[in-house]
Amino acid sequence: MHQLYIDPGTGSMLFTILIGLIGAGIYSLRMLFVKLRFLVSGGKKVAVNENKIPFVIFSDNKRYWNVFEPVCQEMDQRGVDVVYMTASPDDPALTCPYEHIKGQFIGEGNKAFAKLNFLNAGIVLSTTPGLDVYQWKRSKDVQCYVHMLHAASEVTMYRMFGIDYYDAILLSGQFQEDDIRNLEKLRDLPAKELVRIGIPYMDEMKKRLAAAGAVPEHPTTILLAPSWGPEGLLTKYGKKIIQPLLDTGYHVIVRPHPQSFASEKELMDSLMKAYPASDQLEWNRDNDNFDVLRRSDLMISDFSGVIFDFTMIYDKPVIYTAANIDTSVYDAWWLDTPIWTSQILPKIGHVLKEEDIPSMKAIIEECLHDEKYAKGRDEARKEAWCFEGEGAVRAADYLIAKQKDLNKEEVQK
Known about the structure:
alpha/beta; Rossmann fold; six-stranded parallel β-sheet; 15 helices; 13 strands; disordered N terminus
């Protein structure tokens, strides 16, 4: 007897079709109910959407709590109720101390998207790309979808069409706005509402750094903090880079991307066995990276977004590997302009090639003391971190004002 097999792509398509049919049915029934109430009431005004949630934040992973928390805190201080929907059962949002922020676990994977696809809300704020492209479909009962970036980098490095169907995007730099407008013209899309607010989570991290005071005296510490995947630093070099780092005599911290322990478990196990923790070497897996970034003097990474946290907030140099990223699956492929990250990286750090690894100590010393990298960090902040210190306030200002406008439009209709 043959078992029925459905490949993941077909399964995703069937799920999308099913959700669409169910959504259309529910929407039709809801509108029919409203019309019936109108007729029964003798033509009197009926509340069309009295169960609408004014503000919803959706997070597909608990690691984005630090991105949303400053905005949640600001909304809470203003007495504005927000429903925080998360796909992580252990999301810190579920136990947050804010009176007006109500955490809600909505299931993982398709279960979460199924709930979102029938959501009845005014504004949905999220960092998740792919709205109306994959399983997550626009609900007919959501008035406005707002996207917020979770790193100080370009918006075009999402997979294709990742932000096309959002109504508004909160940005931190002019280059991001330019890229979006160019994509809209190429694809003949309606213009989104683009609002530069800054980067709320970086504002909070900088405050936290100032409050922590000076770092205690310590040996020169090098942080190896790669991303994961075939172009990730540990995947490409592994032992070839860890041993030369130890040979420098510096204190070394290796902090792999969390996904590496799931998707690259064999590699992680072999490296941790070959280089066990010692007085000179740490393997760091802390959920909060504040302490490890604070006590590191230089970072070695690849294309990880943590590079910009380290340079802009902690004001420290980096060494990075030039990744051969295939942009054909990303929005950046559509644009003739160069990627901002590829332009700014040489100004804030030193590119590391495989043949340079034996000279690691000399490269580190140069990066620690060359003033040109400090000037590059200033330039990066200027271009990618507008309204420093004001991100959460500006985000809350926009969301509250937008919701008032949407309410006026609904009343007029």
